[in-house]
């Protein structure tokens, strides 16, 4: 209905020139619309956004949803559709789904998600399946899937993760790292050769110096 000096009282059983509909026909819902400081009664087949239809023996009315961020509701305390950007969950509206629930973007609803257990302790630090012979390795921890998601399209969180770690034993007992003494031996041999070469050059210098006039 449009309102002015002569309101149109469509669907009304009784109507006021100043306030619009006062009583509605059977099956229609009475809605009190506020415009500035004034309010007008309307008779509607369905209630507008943010309201739900409350049927009573006296007269059907549009009652406001009492749930925050609700667009339409079944009753004052149960929302059936949330406003844009909010997810519906058990009659309430949320910016993000509660723990244990996952968001269905196409429906903007929260459904039971993938439930996982607690993380295990970090495993042994290793590299190439060895726990020695290297300075750094990786350690891993895992957790189990306790409950699979209601929808196959909802992914489970990671159930294994690894991190860098320092090995407790860098050198393996009896392992390949015993080659190091050989390196020391090579250094000594190289040093000995240098000394011998220096002595030989010194002898040549002395012999040349004696033969010089």
Task: Count up the helices.
Answer: 1
Query: What oligomeric arrangement do these chains adopt?
Result: single chain
Helix content: 10-25%
Mean pLDDT: 80
Low-pLDDT sequence parts: 1-6, 209-213
Query: What pattern of helices and strands is seen along the backbone?
Result: EEEEEEEEEEEEEEEEH
Give a short overview.
With 213 residues, the chain is of the alpha+beta class. The chain contains 1 helix and 16 strands.
Report on this model:
By secondary structure, the chain is of the alpha+beta class. The protein has three domains: about 10-65, Ribbon (Hormone Receptor, Insulin-like Growth Factor Receptor 1, Chain A domain 2), CATH 2.10.220.10; about 70-110, Ribbon (Hormone Receptor, Insulin-like Growth Factor Receptor 1, Chain A domain 2), CATH 2.10.220.10; about 115-170 and about 185-210, no CATH class. Helices cover about 15% and strands about 35% of the residues. The chain is built from one helix and 16 strands. It has one helix at about 180-210, and strands spanning about 10-15, 20-25, 30-35, 40-45, 50-55, 60-65, 70-75, 80, 85-90, 90-95, 100-105, 110, 115, 135-140, 145, 160-165. The strands form eight sheets. The chain has a two-stranded antiparallel ribbon. A two-stranded antiparallel sheet has the order 3-4. Strand 11 (about 100-105) and strand 12 form a beta hairpin. The protein is rod-shaped and about 135 Å long. The termini are far apart. The model is unreliable at about 1-5 and about 210-213 (pLDDT under 50).
């Amino acid at each position: 209905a449009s309102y002015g000096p002569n309101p149109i009282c469509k669907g009304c059983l009784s109507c006021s020139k100043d306030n619009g509909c006062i009583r509605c026909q059977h099956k229609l819902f009475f809605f009190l619309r506020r415009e500035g400081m004034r309010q007008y009664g309307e008779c509607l087949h369905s209630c507008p956004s943010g309201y739900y239809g409350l049927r009573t023996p006296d007269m059907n009315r549009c009652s406001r949803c009492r749930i925050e961020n609700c667009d339409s509701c079944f009753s004052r305390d149960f929302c059936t559709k949330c406003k844009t950007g909010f997810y519906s969950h058990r009659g309430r509206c949320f910016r993000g789904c509660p723990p244990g629930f996952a968001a269905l973007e196409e429906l903007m609803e929260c459904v039971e998600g993938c439930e996982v257990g607690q993380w295990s302790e970090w495993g042994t630090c290793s590299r190439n399946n060895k726990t020695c012979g290297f300075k750094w390795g990786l350690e891993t921890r895992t957790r189990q899937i306790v409950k699979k998601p209601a929808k196959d399209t909802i992914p489970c969180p990671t159930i294994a993760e690894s991190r860098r770690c320092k090995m407790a034993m860098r050198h393996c007992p009896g392992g390949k790292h015993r080659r190091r003494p050989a390196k020391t031996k090579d250094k000594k041999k190289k040093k000995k050769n240098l000394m011998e070469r220096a002595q030989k050059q010194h002898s040549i210098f002395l012999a040349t110096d004696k033969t010089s006039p």
